[in-house]
């Protein structure tokens, strides 16, 4: 009866879901639904906003997490694995494989066959008419280019679909062909893999580790991790100039170097040095620690620092509302706050004590993973400007903390891939970092997608270049069509916070 009564005020896409909810959850859903329709949640007083966010997260945890593959994995004793493993195994004591390399992406909803819709409208038309940069817009003082590179640094830690050997070709239609740098291009399909389980029959593997484990620095498997170590005092390899070292073919030596650019390389170098600094601090505290112990402990510390920065610094600045700031700090410290947590440790459950420091994983009945919908919406290439304004970090500081003197503009397209690594070595760590820190990044708006991504050389997993360029905007146009042709997906990422609390 309740579902029928409220049917007129609920979007049709939610009718079936609403009818399956408990009465209390239906009331929570109506609150969230009404605030969403009016775009009000971020404008409410902070206490009401926190109630909204908590209600939304509770509903997402109950109704929007779908398992792909087996629910059960190998169990183990947590005390036998008090450190990060190379391939992301042994984090959940009840499922050793959860979140590891080559495990399934999860889902926030059941798969829907959209093959008929994906070319209508044509993704190249979407890229040309809605995404392609016209008049560049930036974020002013809110977000700089380091912050733009940060989210790409995180994606290199979290997710990458395993590819098939089959290629797909996209051809620009006549009406926009003159606006496209590529009249056609090919890319590899995502490999579809049987789950051998009831429910969702096929899924896709994540070739990276889904945990927040710093794998963009350390690698996604033990073999890669060994290649990056010095085996002296637990440290990682880094160049004397503060930049990543390179193999003979110019590929950088770091945890994940596929489809990268100088901005991500700078952050990989920065946190490599952070790892080494932690090793020095640990050794000073306890000189008896072995190389292996120093490495493991420093990785735990560095991964936690990265997760903390993303939670209570980066995300807060991206969305920049008082409610979001309070919500993300509550995720980390709990409603009792930082002082209580620092003094007494984790008290109570996730609401009072925060998501960090829970005594056991809380996976809401499904194995931990990142979801297909999460990968679909985490698209922020518009943050990248067209040029980088190089500045002189050696100059004396000006009045009122003014930026260092301007030197020249660098086309950011030249900072992509192997060419970018070569140019970065000439610019240097300090000049690149200072310049990125003093320049606003692009705004997340339509008609602000960088043109150089429409004719970009993709890379293999080992960082080597592929022979043919792709139109990245057209590929993301396909994802945009997928989201718009299935409006149920649009509810997923308004605030899908629950994914990360087990990854710390």
From TrEMBL:
Q: Name one GO molecular function term.
A: heme binding
Keyword Membrane in record = no
Gene3D superfamilies in alphabetical order: Haem peroxidase domain superfamily, animal type
- InterPro entries associated with the record: Haem_peroxidase_animal, Haem_peroxidase_sf, Haem_peroxidase_sf_animal, Oxylipin_biosynth_metab
In the record, biological process GO terms are: defense response; fatty acid metabolic process; response to oxidative stress
Keywords from UniProt, A to Z, are: Calcium, Dioxygenase, Iron, Metal-binding, Oxidoreductase, Plant defense
- Kindly give the SUPFAM superfamilies that the UniProt entry links to this protein: Heme-dependent peroxidases
Say yes or no: keyword Metal-binding present. yes
Q: Which PANTHER family match?
A: ALPHA-DIOXYGENASE 1, PROSTAGLANDIN G/H SYNTHASE
Could you identify this protein by its name? Answer: Uncharacterized protein
């Amino acid at each position: 009866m309740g579902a029928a009564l409220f049917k007129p005020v609920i979007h049709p896409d939610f009718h079936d879901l609403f009818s399956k909810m408990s009465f209390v959850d239906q009331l929570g859903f109506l609150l969230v639904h009404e605030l969403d329709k009016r775009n009000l949640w971020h404008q409410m007083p902070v206490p009401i906003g926190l109630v909204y966010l908590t209600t939304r997260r509770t509903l997402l945890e109950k109704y929007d997490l779908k398992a792909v593959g087996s629910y059960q994995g190998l169990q183990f004793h947590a005390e036998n694995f008090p450190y990060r493993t190379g391939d992301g195994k042994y984090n959940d004591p009840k499922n050793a494989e959860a979140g590891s390399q080559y495990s399934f992406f999860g889902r926030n909803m059941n798969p829907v066959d959209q093959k008929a819709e994906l070319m209508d409208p044509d993704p190249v038309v979407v890229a040309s008419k809605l995404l392609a940069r016209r008049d560049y817009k930036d974020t002013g003082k809110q977000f700089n280019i380091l912050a733009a590179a940060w989210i790409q640094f995180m994606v290199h830690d979290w997710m990458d679909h395993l590819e098939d050997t089959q290629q797909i070709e996209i051809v620009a239609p006549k009406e926009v062909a003159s606006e496209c740098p590529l009249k056609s291009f090919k890319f590899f399909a995502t490999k579809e893999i049987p789950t051998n389980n009831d429910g969702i029959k096929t899924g896709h593997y994540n070739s990276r580790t889904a945990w927040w484990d710093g794998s963009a620095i350390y690698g996604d498997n033990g073999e890669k991790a060994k290649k990056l170590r010095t085996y002296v005092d637990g440290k990682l390899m880094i160049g004397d100039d503060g930049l990543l070292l390179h193999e003979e073919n110019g590929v950088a030596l770091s945890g994940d170097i596929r489809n990268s650019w100088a901005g991500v390389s700078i952050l990989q170098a920065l946190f490599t040095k952070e790892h080494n600094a932690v090793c020095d601090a640990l050794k000073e505290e306890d000189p008896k620690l072995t190389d292996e112990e120093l490495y493991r402990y420093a990785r735990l510390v560095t991964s936690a620092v990265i997760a903390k920065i993303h939670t209570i610094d980066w995300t807060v600045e991206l969305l920049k509302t008082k409610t979001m700031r309070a919500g993300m700090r509550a995720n980390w410290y709990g409603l009792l706050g930082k002082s209580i947590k620092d003094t007494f440790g984790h008290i109570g459950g996730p609401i009072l004590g925060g998501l960090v420091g829970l005594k056991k994983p809380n996976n809401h009945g499904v194995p931990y993973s990142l979801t297909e919908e999460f990968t679909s919406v985490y698209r922020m290439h518009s943050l990248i400007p067209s040029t980088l304004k190089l500045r002189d970090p050696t100059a004396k500081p000006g009045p009122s903390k003014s930026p260092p003197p301007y030197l020249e503009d660098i086309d950011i397209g030249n900072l992509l891939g192997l060419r970018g690594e070569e140019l970065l070595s000439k610019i240097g760590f300090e000049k690149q970092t200072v310049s990125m820190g003093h320049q606003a990044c692009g705004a997340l708006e339509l008609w602000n997608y960088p043109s150089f991504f429409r004719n970009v050389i993709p890379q293999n997993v080992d960082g080597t270049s592929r022979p043919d360029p792709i139109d990245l905007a057209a590929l993301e146009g396909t994802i945009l069509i997928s989201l718009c042709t299935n409006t149920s997906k649009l509810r997923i990422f308004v605030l899908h916070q629950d994914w990360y609390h087990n990854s710390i």
